């Protein structure tokens, strides 16, 4: 590789020739500093910690420098050769220092090209082979399977192709797999993903018929598990990824708090792109969105009720309705449904809040308030009542205990002051974060202690 650089610097000048009894002769021109730099490099291969890289190594460098005068100044340089030579001798070292500093940047030019990337660009995938790859995040590699090993693919018994090699089934459900084209002597099996470390809850598949039965919902705690279904006939093999879901319907958000008269958009989808149905159970209504999220399969706008649309509290209602009303939005597809919990505060949650503290393996809530001109205080436990607005567990003395027989994503805890009728609430996520993470999220800030 060759680098050529040619440039010049021009400075305007003026010569005065005095004449006795006459005006001086004024002559204009320019002093021109010109230079050129030429650098030559070659590529070398360096090996550092087993990694091969192409590097640039400088093999030759050269430069020239010249000072000259143009215009009418040129003849004065001729008459004043000693002065000109003195100017050149004084300017040449300065420009040499300037040029050396420039060339030093090229001398230390640090350019490396990973030979693996270069090989991929020049020789494509067929010429690249890696023994192992270490990557901190998700990595997708696109390749081609050997044609002699993939003479068939997996589909369902109704000849429905499996989209991108993945399908889903509800807990306890069944899928009858087959091959396309039909292949005799296929043996079916099911296994967990390679990095699965939980219990052996992959479900069962009939080796001869390909009928897969998903595990029951009460046999695992998470919202889903993934397994691999394999069909093998001789040296030919095909795989399909199966997600065992508690529900094939997803919705966002799953819980929200809205003031009366406000609104929020809800996004929903079904794993297999099934039709989505909507219904409000309680207060509020749904309406279509003119410009919804283009990536969402379905979306609706929930309009919270106005103050006049919510009946006043009376003794026949639950105590919590005095503080927070609760509505639900049912999002369904076929026989599968999921709910969005909507919390509608009736009273203002003023200068009262909940804090989380450790309680063995669980979380204990404390009810605090901030008086005027005084530090924050713990509400008297004797005057505090604890309630579960949303959730299947119990909250006794501020400690919430989930119901182990029911899968929950969250619970809503409410504390009320029996004397002043003040309250505070908090959404407790379950079981996505551990106690330490939850406490870190809800740690008291300095403003609460002032």
- Spans of 5+ residues with little confidence (pLDDT < 50)? 119-128, 446-450
Backbone CA Rg: 39 Å
**Main β-sheet, spatial strand arrangement:** 1-2-3-4
Q: Estimate the helix proportion, in percent.
A: 10-25%
Instruction: Give the quaternary arrangement of the chains.
Output: single chain
Q: Number of helical segments?
A: 4
Largest sheet: 4 strands, antiparallel
Q: What coarse outline follows from CA principal-axis ratios? A: extended
End-to-end CA span: 68 Å
**Residue fraction in strands:** over 45%
Overall structural class, as computed from helix and strand content, comes to mainly beta
Give the beta-strand count.
28
Number of structural domains: 4
Average of the residue pLDDT scores = 78
Q: What are its keywords?
A:
450 residues, mainly beta, Immunoglobulin-like, 4 domains, four-stranded antiparallel sheet, 4 helices, 47% strand, extended, disordered C terminus
Structure write-up:
By secondary structure, the chain is mainly beta. The strands form eight sheets. It has a four-stranded antiparallel β-sheet with strand order 1-2-3-4. The chain has a four-stranded antiparallel β-sheet with strand order 5-7-10-9, with no helix packed on it. It has four helices and 28 strands. It folds into four domains: 2-114, no CATH class; 151-245, Immunoglobulins (Immunoglobulin-like, Sandwich), CATH 2.60.40.10; 249-345, Sandwich (Immunoglobulin-like); 352-449, no CATH class.
């Amino acid at each position: 590789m060759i680098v050529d650089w040619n440039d010049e610097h021009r400075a305007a000048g003026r010569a005065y020739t005095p004449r006795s009894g006459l005006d001086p002769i004024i002559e204009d021109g320019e002093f021109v500093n010109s230079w050129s730099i030429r650098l030559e490099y070659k590529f070398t291969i360096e090996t550092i910690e087993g990694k091969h890289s192409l590097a640039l190594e400088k093999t030759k460098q050269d430069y020239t420098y010249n000072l000259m005068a143009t215009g009418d100044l040129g003849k004065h340089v001729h008459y004043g050769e000693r002065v000109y030579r003195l100017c050149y001798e004084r300017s040449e070292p300065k420009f040499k220092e300037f040029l050396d500093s420039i060339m030093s940047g090229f001398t230390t030019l640090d350019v490396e090209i990973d030979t693996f990337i270069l090989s991929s660009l020049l020789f494509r995938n067929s010429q690249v082979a890696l023994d192992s790859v270490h990557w901190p995040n998700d990595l997708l590699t696109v390749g081609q399977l050997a044609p002699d090993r993939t003479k068939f693919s997996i589909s369902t018994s109704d000849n429905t192709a499996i989209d991108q090699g993945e399908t889903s089934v509800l807990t306890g459900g069944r899928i009858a797999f087959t091959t396309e084209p039909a292949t005799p002597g296929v043996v079916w099996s099911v296994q967990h993903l390679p990095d699965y470390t939980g219990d052996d809850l992959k479900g069962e598949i009939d080796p001869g018929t390909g009928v897969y039965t998903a595990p029951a919902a009460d046999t695992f705690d998470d919202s889903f598990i993934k397994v691999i279904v394999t069909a093998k006939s001789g040296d030919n093999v095909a795989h399909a990824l199966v997600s065992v879901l508690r529900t094939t319907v997803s919705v966002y958000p799953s819980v929200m708090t809205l003031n009366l008269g406000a609104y929020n958009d809800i996004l929903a989808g079904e794993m297999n792109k099934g039709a989505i149905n909507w219904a409000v159970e309680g207060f509020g209504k749904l309406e279509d969105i003119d410009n919804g999220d283009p990536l969402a399969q379905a979306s609706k706008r929930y309009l919270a009720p106005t103050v006049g649309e919510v009946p006043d509290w009376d003794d026949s209602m639950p105590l919590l309705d005095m503080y927070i009303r609760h509505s639900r939005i049912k999002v369904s597809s076929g026989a599968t449904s999921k709910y969005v919990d909507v919390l509608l505060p009736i009273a203002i949650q003023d200068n009262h809040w909940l804090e989380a503290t450790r309680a063995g393996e669980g979380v204990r809530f404390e009810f605090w308030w901030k008086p005027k001109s005084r530090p924050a205080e713990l509400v008297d436990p004797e005057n505090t009542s604890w309630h579960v607005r949303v959730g299947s567990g119990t909250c006794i003395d501020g400690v919430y205990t989930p119901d182990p027989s029911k899968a929950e994503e969250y619970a809503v805890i409410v504390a009320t002051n029996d004397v002043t009728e003040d309250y505070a609430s908090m959404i407790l996520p379950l079981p996505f974060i551990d106690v330490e993470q939850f406490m870190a999220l809800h740690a008291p800030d300095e403003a609460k202690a002032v």
